[in-house]
Amino acid sequence: MTTESSPVLITRAAMADLPTKFGHFQIIVYLDAEQKEQIALTCGDLNGSEPVLTRLHSECLTGDVFGSHRCDCGEQLAAALNAIQQAGRGVLLYLRQEGRGIGLVNKIRAYALQQQGLDTIDANRALGLPIDTRDYGVAAAILRDLGVHTVRLLTNNPAKITGLEECGITVSERVPLQIPANVYNALYLLAKQLRMGHLLDSRMLL
Ligand SMILES: Nc1nc2c(ncn2[C@@H]2O[C@H](COP(=O)(O)OP(=O)(O)OP(=O)(O)O)[C@@H](O)[C@H]2O)c(=O)[nH]1
Ligand SMILES: [Zn+2]
C-alpha cells in the first residue's frame, strides 16, 4: 500500500508479530522514497481519538546495538519500548537518521573530534556538516498510514515536536524521556541542554 496523504511517499513492505523482552509488538517495515527501510513497532489498537504514546527514535548504531555510553540512545530506546508496553497502546518509529542525519562515518569522525575536546555541535561544524539534518516527513507519513494523527511524544527535544507538527501531526503532550547521565555522556547531555535547547532536568546531569 502506498500512502499519498502528504508529499512524502512511503510503502508498507512487510509486517509480522514481534515478541520481544519488552512485550509483544507488531513490526511493520516501510520503504521510503529513497528505498530506506523505516520501521514501526506498534502495540495495541491505534485507532480512536485518544492521543497515542509515540516515540520517534533516530537510529544510533553505537548506542542502540553496542550499548555505547557516549550517548543516551540505547537506554532511551529500552525505556520507550517499556513505556509503550506499560501503556498497552503506542508506537515506536525507528527512523534511519543515524548521527542526526549525517550518517555513521561522519558521526564517528565527530566522535574522534569530541575525544580531542570539541562538543557535539562544534565537532559537526569542524567537519563542515550541519548540526541536525533530520526532518520528520517520513515519520508523519507512517503515523498517518497507521491512523495516528495526535500523539503524546516521548522526547526531550523541542525541535522534534515542532518538526513533527510542521508535517501535520498534532503533539498533544510531551512525555519526558530522560536517562541519568554517566561519566561518558555527561558533557554531551550538557551540550544538548545548553546549546540545542533539550529539555533536560539538571538534577539528572552529573
Ligand atoms: N552527529 C552526531 N550525532 C550524534 C551524536 N551523538 C548521538 N548522535 C545521534 O543523534 C541522534 C539522537 O539524537 P538526540 O539529539 O540524542 O536525541 P533526539 O532523538 O533528538 O531527542 P530525544 O527525543 O530527546 O531523544 C541519533 O541519530 C544518534 O546517532 C554526536 O555526538 N554527533
Ligand atoms: Zn546515540
Automatic annotation (TrEMBL):
Keywords, alphabetical: GTP-binding, Hydrolase, Metal-binding, Nucleotide-binding, Riboflavin biosynthesis, Zinc
GO cellular component, one term: cytosol
Protein family membership: Belongs to the GTP cyclohydrolase II family.
Domain GTP cyclohydrolase II residue range list: 13-176
Binding site for Zn(2+): C60, C71, C73
SUPFAM superfamilies in alphabetical order: RibA-like
Superkingdom classification of source: Bacteria
Alphabetized Gene3D superfamilies for the sequence: GTP cyclohydrolase II
InterPro entries: GTP_cyclohydro_II, RibA, RibA-like_sf
Name this polypeptide is given: GTP cyclohydrolase-2
Catalytic residue positions: D132 (proton acceptor), R134 (nucleophile)
Class in the EC hierarchy, top level: hydrolase
